[in-house]
Amino acid sequence: HTTASNGQAACAGGGACAHLLPYKGAAGLDRFHSFLLAQLQAEQQLRQQQQQGATSPCAAASKCSVCGSAFNVHVCLDCSFSGCLQLSSAGKCGHLLDHFNANQSHAIALELTNYHLWCSVCADYAYEPELTAVAALYSTLRKMPIPSQFDLYDIRTLLHATPHPNSLRGMYNLGSTCFMSCILQCLAHNPLLRNYFLADKHNRALCHLRTQMAALKANDTSGALPICLACELDKLVSELHTRGGTGTACGAFAPHEFLVSIWKYSKCLAGYEQQDAHELYITTLNALHTHCGGTLDDASCPCPVHQIFSGFLLSIVTCSKCGHVSSTYDPFFDVSLGVTVDVDGGQSIKGGVSLSSCLTRFTKSEKLSGGEQYRCENCTTYEQCTKRLSLHTLPNVITFHFKRFEQTRNNRHVKVQKFVQFPHTLNMYPYTSHYMQNNDKSNSEDPPHPPPACCEYELFCVVQHVGDLDQGHYNCFVQQQGHWFSCDDAVVSPVLLTQVLRAQAYILFYVKKQLLFAPVDTAPTPVASSLSPLF
Question: Residue 120: which residues within 8 A CB-CB, separation 6 or more?
Fold first, then answer.
């Protein structure tokens, strides 16, 4: 065996370890499934009891049976003995090896941190396609932030009924870059942005910025050469959708060129410190707008950012003294929502909030008084007023960002851990200007207006942040060919939709289920030239 970069080992010839085959052949995969399912349920029970402040005897399963150490513990798959294993340049030692020396018929152990398989005969981590796939799936299930019950039917459905598309490839962590991997996965699996690059709308070989860069390289020594993040995303999408790419098919790769380019474009994102995924997302959209020929006119900009992500907010301010109404239209590329509980903000759930309640609170009328008073154009004085936001023009892809990081009164930065319930399909009509204007004008006798089909959205990506502010980690879920997958840096595993909907969401991506296209023989109408209610 030769040790691979991900901690596992590969046979010298690239095949499976022969010593794992007798274990699999004795009872098929049933015994391995039963063991991992019992381990998963024990860990979930332990997490639940720890949240209640109680201790559990199942905690001993993750400790060495001899010395009680919790470091690098492995479990023998033949007898469930738990033993520690120490690997160093001086050699290998530990109570796991003592156990195998005393029981020559036992050969396979499971490492309990990442669920890697250990072969006692080879004295190294080993690989076998089916066993490794099952272990990787259970490793993903146990990392879900909300405990849930799984059975063998659900797990085998994930293993055998879910395809693994060629475009699903993990991305190596290049040093606290999990935030970047998540955003790149979501952008690459955005169906509209993906099709933009696959249709060669931005060809990196013909990019004017790349041509300018090539001309300046010979003479410019300042290091301030032009960069193009659109070219980097074009390269990324090509890498994901080229079978094999620079590595093996469906194998992880390192997006180091994008990382260097984003460092050059935004100095605040440079370095190996923990960064905010939402900040990278907004920075990347700004760069795409600039590098794809974007204009200053938000209503008719031809760049893919405006065509895919841009919508318009309508802000209506009503003077409480004279009733004068002032309307303002502002472009938006994402909707940032607070996750604090508001009893009047809409439906809430136990221990958290829902996306619908956050949107209801976002579009709820608020009174502006004191230092927030508005200067009425009619009264020509600062007066109390009411302000209400609504979504006037809906984008083709709408992004919701939850404000999970906030500053307390004593200037401490903390993370809001509330669970946000979100649906698989979303109707945005109740939050549009069209809906609110019709509700204000309609009488109780009038029949309710049916929601337009173009207000229906479907979830396709979720970015979640687990942990706290100092020791957190990003991973994401993407939808591909009707199935859901977890992308955790270099590891890509199938998951169930029910697991996705239990994620501790930080950013949600929804795409319209029905898109409107202008006729081919006519010029497209600007998105909001007259700012009439469009969907």
Answer: 19, 97, 100, 106, 107, 108, 109
CA-to-CA distance for 64 and 62, rounded, in angstroms?
Answer: 7
Q: Which long-range contacts (CB under 8 A, 24 or more apart) does 292-297 make?
A: 292/202, 292/230
Residue 132 DSSP SS3: helix
* Residue partners of 347: CB distance under 8 A and separation at least 6: 354, 356, 357, 360
> For residue 371, what are its two tokens?
């230092």
Angle at alpha carbon of residue 506, lines to 301 and 342, rounded to 5°: 100
Report the amino acid identity of residue 163: P
Contact 485, 495 (CB under 8 A): yes
Contact (CB, 8 A) for 506 and 186: no
Cα(226)–Cα(209) distance, rounded to whole angstroms?
6
* pLDDT tens-digit readout, 212-232: 655 555 555 555 557 889 999
Read off the tokens for 323.
């009733």
What is the C-alpha separation between 467 and 474, in angstroms, rounded? Answer: 9
pLDDT band at 518 (very low <50, low <70, confident <90, very high): low
Confidence of residue 14 (pLDDT cuts 50, 70, 90): very low
- Secondary structure string (H, E, C) spanning 419-486: EEECCCEEECHHHEHHHHHHHHHCCCCCCCCCCCHHHEEEEEEEEEEEECCCCEEEEEEEEECCEEEE
Q: Residue 175: CA atoms inside 13 Å, Cβ hemisphere, count?
A: 8
Length of the chain: 535
Cα separation, 491 vs 136, whole angstroms: 8
Active site residue ranges: 178, 473
At residue 179's C-alpha, the angle toward residues 176 and 181, to 5°, is 95
The pLDDT of 268-272, averaged and rounded, is 86
From the list 80, 48, 88, the residue with the least C-alpha distance to 62 is 80
- For residues 244 and 494, give the distance between their C-alpha atoms in angstroms, rounded to a whole number: 20
Q: Are 230 and 292 in contact (CB under 8 A)?
A: yes
Sheet holding 385-393, edge to edge: 325-332, 311-319, 385-393, 366-368
Ranking 57-66, 202-211, 239-248 by mean pLDDT, the lowest is 239-248
Q: How far apart are CA 24 and CA 31, in angstroms?
A: 8
Q: How far is CA 267 from CA 196, 264, 290, in A?
A: 28, 6, 17
Q: CA-based angle 124:80:25, to the nearest 5?
A: 65
Give the SS3 label for residue 324: coil
Write down the mean pLDDT value for the chain: 78
Look up tokens 């991506």; give the residue.
Answer: 509
Q: Is 470 exposed, middle or buried (0-12, 13-18, 19+ CB in 10 A)?
A: exposed
The helix or strand, by DSSP H or E, that contains position 510, with its residue range, turns out to be strand 505-512
